Amino acid sequence: MKAEFLRMSGYELAGFPKTEALKWIGKYVIFKIKKRLWGFENSGEVSDWEMRMYSQNGEDGIIEYIFGRIGIANRYFVELGTGEGNECNSRYLQEKGWTGLGIDGNYKNEFVKNEWITRENVEKLLRKYRVPKEFDLLSIDLDSNDYWIWKAMTNFHPRAVVIEYNSCIPADQSLTIAYDPKFIADGSNYFGASLKALDKLAGVKGYILVGCESRGVNAFFVRADLARGKFAPARVEELYRPPQFGRKIDGRWAGYPASDRKMVEV
Questions:
Q1: Based on the structure, what is the number of domains in the chain?
Q2: How far, in whole angstroms, is CA 161 from its chain's centroid?
């Protein structure tokens, strides 16, 4: 814990604004206090458990909370869209003894495999790298075909899923980009899929939505059989979080600029 705190305290030295550094140091301390006092029996919104070691928006803490509730099976993760692997959802897990597979279409290093991921090849890639059919965590952050790639994963069954959603789309709309294996995000609001679209897909696959982090970037799903008695089912409209990124209009976050490209209903 001492080493972790020293790393947290180094945020400002790493280029983070002072207020941002203090915010995450504070969340780290609160996370550790709550964990020590109540374990993970203290329920509530998953965003209450945000804690950032290497993740972008506090996903490290939420992931630890979810597995504190449902238990850990094989300590194996798959992360699709790791970037360089410095700021991602699996690096902290590796430090805690997990193993797994990280893939990114633009980077390659000792942790990250350089592969372009499509719905046609995603399961071939998982078999290529000998991913077990059942594993603990799947993380998808591709800013593109996230919906279609998760949909294509029919023979692999993670116990929990973290997936980016497009919070620029209101909670009552079930939309995704049209599938394009060569798609690259252009900085507009034409990317990924809405939370409602992902929730509908999750239901077909046997998962329930357990929450979103506070910036409106990632959604968290747990396999329904594991969630029973641990997470109460809730409506998408209750768990949706609006964008806290992109442009500001009249002092309020408004997400990315609108695109003239039309999304498809699913």
A1: 2
A2: 7
